[in-house]
Task: inverse folding
């Protein structure tokens, strides 16, 4: 079983300036929690025991967030705010956290290469630190691990159907055959294609199972879209090593919230805030009045 995961959080987040000037975009809140906490909760629910964050300059707050804060705990107890202690329950995850730095932001493929020693010779799960799947803890990574079924030569990518006009923002897959069912084979994939050249409207949803050969493939990958070393391009090369490429479709009702730009951040925040049990109902009334 796959028990190790990599969460790349080293990106500069330039599309979200000035919010990301001195804080990681992965720590921006969605509702009551920072984005990366949703990601870690999904991994923990999938049985992941070790998580490596690939970080960069200015990302210390991610380490602090997953650390014990004894001073804060004591303060809450001493000031009669014990009820808030349950908001810190995630600190008790038995998961081991590791951190390494991507020294130059050369793209997602390059960030994953920083995990080579951590992964050793085992397949890994990858979850982008700026993408939430579903509104309650998603079973996406768990289902991907089950689908991999201990096969060391399979790469599985979570995919989601989007409006064909939006495909140029994402990695897009070309299914082999009709793409019926939840799990199907991938013939090819391309990063950020032009709308009229995209092979489908099935886009990569920020979750991957990667086989050990991925590191060799990344090293052979030339810079691609945006001049970055693209993970999508390295995955294409995996076919040359005899690896199977599979796509796992997000289940109906579950979607990927990509927090890489303000438009989608605003939409995501509003959706999660409206669903909040405590504040959602009043917010709904307030929003109705504003409209
Ligand atoms: P993005 O593609 O959104 O890149 O990253 P970015 O650099 O953060 O954002 P912009 O384009 O400057 O606004 C997707 C995920 O991959 C990580 C990011 O932290 C994010 O979680 N990433 C990206 C890295 O870890 N390293 C990189 O070099 C690029």
Result:
């Amino acid at each position: 079983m796959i028990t190790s995961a990599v969460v790349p959080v080293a990106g500069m987040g330039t599309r979200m300036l000035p919010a990301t000037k001195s804080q990681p975009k992965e720590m921006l809140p969605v509702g009551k929690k920072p984005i990366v906490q949703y990601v870690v909760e999904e991994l923990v629910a999938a049985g992941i025991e070790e998580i490596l964050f690939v970080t960069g300059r200015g990302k210390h707050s991610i380490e602090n967030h997953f650390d014990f804060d004894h001073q804060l705990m004591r303060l809450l107890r001493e000031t009669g705010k014990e009820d808030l202690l349950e908001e810190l329950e995630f600190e008790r995850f038995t998961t081991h956290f590791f951190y390494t730095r991507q020294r130059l932001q050369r793209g997602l493929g390059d960030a994953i290469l920083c995990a080579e020693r951590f992964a050793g010779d085992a397949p890994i799960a990858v979850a982008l630190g700026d993408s939430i799947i579903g509104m309650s803890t998603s079973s996406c990574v768990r289902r991907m691990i089950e689908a991999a079924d201990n096969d060391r030569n399979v790469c599985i990518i979570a995919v989601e159907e989007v409006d064909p006009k939006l495909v140029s923002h994402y990695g897009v897959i070309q299914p082999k055959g009709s793409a019926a069912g939840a799990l199907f084979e991938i013939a090819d994939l391309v990063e950020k294609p032009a709308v009229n050249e995209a092979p489908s409207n099935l886009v990569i949803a920020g979750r991957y199972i990667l086989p050990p050969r991925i590191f060799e493939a990344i090293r052979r990958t030339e810079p691609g879209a945006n001049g970055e070393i693209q993970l999508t391009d390295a995955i294409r090369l995996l076919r040359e090593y005899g690896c199977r490429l599979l796509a796992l479709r997000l289940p109906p009702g579950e979607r990927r919230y990509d927090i890489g730009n303000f438009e989608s951040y605003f939409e995501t925040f509003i959706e999660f805030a409206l669903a909040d049990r405590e504040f959602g109902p009043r917010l709904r009334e307030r929003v109705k009045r504003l409209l």
Notes: The chain has a mean pLDDT of 94.
